[in-house]
Write a structure and sequence with these properties.
- The protein is an alpha+beta fold.
- The chain has two domains: 88 residues, Ubiquitin-like (UB roll), CATH 3.10.20; 237 residues, Creatine Kinase, Chain A, domain 2.
- The protein contains eight helices and 14 strands.
- The strands form two sheets. Strands 6, 7, 8, 9, 10, 11, 12, 13 and 14 form a nine-stranded mixed sheet that branches.
- A hairpin with a 2-residue loop joins strand 6 and strand 7.
- Helix 2 crosses helix 3 and helix 4 packs across helix 8.
- Bound molecules: adenosine-5'-diphosphate and manganese (II) ion (3 copies).
- One manganese (II) ion binds next to strand 6.
Length: 334
């Protein structure tokens, strides 16, 4: 039986990259290593038409939960034809930082929030109007509070079948808004798995006639935005509270640089309302969901553990966020 391999990559769309994929059919019993492949970069914002070839190199492979059997999903990095990283390849720089600081044993758990849309409005929003105000949708139950659970369950099963390390799911504050968490894993592993989990989200929802978006503020006004809270620890932070405080201080010293790479449209989401701190300020605190960085109460009690950077947008690139957090904190912890 032939093997269908879905080659998945991150494109060059500005300001937020999108996922693309296409299928390569390989004979069964071929090489263990998947071959490099190519695509038309002029159709993805990655090359001009007169020199349109870009290269795909598989970097993370998983069993395909959609096609089943021997079929595979292959997350790829994009290379130029000289096999150096393409300008849109943010994984290469992340890998360099992950290797430089591997002695610190950095771990990330990322909370990916997203919103389902159908008929050009969030799932659960009535035609031409608004649902009841926020208050009981978060972790709710019942047909008047929860919209899209069948898709969410199918996505969770797909991720688990693919071997992704999902640590949980929950319904969010706005109708049609949900979250899944990936990790804890190292910078590259969590990022590869998050990109694949995003692809599976779009792919699974497609069969339900529903789209999923990572838009950071899908509905203007008094409705929560969508973030990607990034939980982080190093070996030191997992044993010593002073390293927790030092990590928060280090993030504060580089706040502007981090904000600039935490996802397009971050100023619309980090307003200071809806469980966010304003993007113009930096703060950290125990149990504080209005701070930029939260120290969970269990961490303060145990005097060790991890911190939650609440600033990244849902549409952030995890290669950029984990690279920056690893570099900033590990450089400061020395
Ligand atoms: P919240 O209370 O903010 O909603 P969640 O339960 O959604 O938190 O997410 C917490 C995330 O933190 C999970 O992905 C979990 O795997 C991760 N996590 C737990 N311990 C650590 C750790 N020591 N280092 C990094 N991430 C961690
Ligand atoms: Mn959460
Ligand atoms: Mn959440
Ligand atoms: Mn959180």
């Amino acid at each position: 039986m032939s093997i269908k391999v879905e080659y998945i990559w991150i494109d060059g769309t500005e300001p937020t990259a999108r996922l693309r994929s296409k299928t390569k059919v390989l004979p069964a019993g071929g090489d263990a290593e998947l071959p490099i492949w190519g695509f038309d970069g002029s159709s993805t914002g990655q090359a001009p038409g007169r020199a349109s070839d870009c290269v795909l190199r598989p970097v993370f492979t998983a069993p395909d939960p959609i096609r089943g059997g021997p079929h595979l999903l292959a997350l790829c990095e994009v290379l130029d034809t000289d096999l150096t990283p393409h300008r849109t390849n943010t994984r290469a720089a992340c890998l360099e930082v992950a290797e430089r600081f591997s002695d610190h044993e950095p771990l990330f758990g990322i909370e990916q929030e997203y919103t389902f849309f159908k008929d050009s409005r969030p799932l659960g929003f009535p035609a031409g109007g608004f649902p009841a105000p926020q208050g009981f949708y978060y972790c709710g139950v019942g047909a008047d509070e929860v919209f899209g659970r069948d898709v969410v369950e199918a996505h969770l099963d797909a991720c688990l079948t693919a071997g992704l390390q999902i640590s949980g799911i929950n319904a969010e504050v706005m109708p049609g808004q949900w979250e899944f968490q990936v990790g804890p894993l190292g910078p590259i592993e969590v990022s590869d798995q998050l990109w694949l989990a995003r692809w599976l989200l779009y792919r699974v929802a497609e069969d339900f006639g529903i789209s999923a978006t990572l838009a950071p503020k899908p509905v203007k006004g008094d409705w929560n935005g969508a973030g990607a809270h990034t939980n982080f620890s190093t070996r030191q932070m997992r044993s010593d509270y002073s390293a927790i405080v030092d990590a928060c201080e280090a993030l504060g010293a580089k706040a502007a640089e981090h904000i600039a790479h935490y996802g397009a449209g971050i100023e619309e989401r980090l307003t200071g309302s809806h469980e966010t701190a304003a993007f113009t300020t930096f703060s950290y605190g125990v149990s504080d969901r209005g701070a930029s960085v939260r120290i969970p109460w269990q961490v303060e009690a145990a005097k060790k553990g991890y911190i939650e950077d609440r600033r990244p947008n849902a549409n952030m690139d995890p290669y950029q966020v984990t690279r920056l957090v690893t570099d900033t904190v590990c450089s400061a912890l020395g």
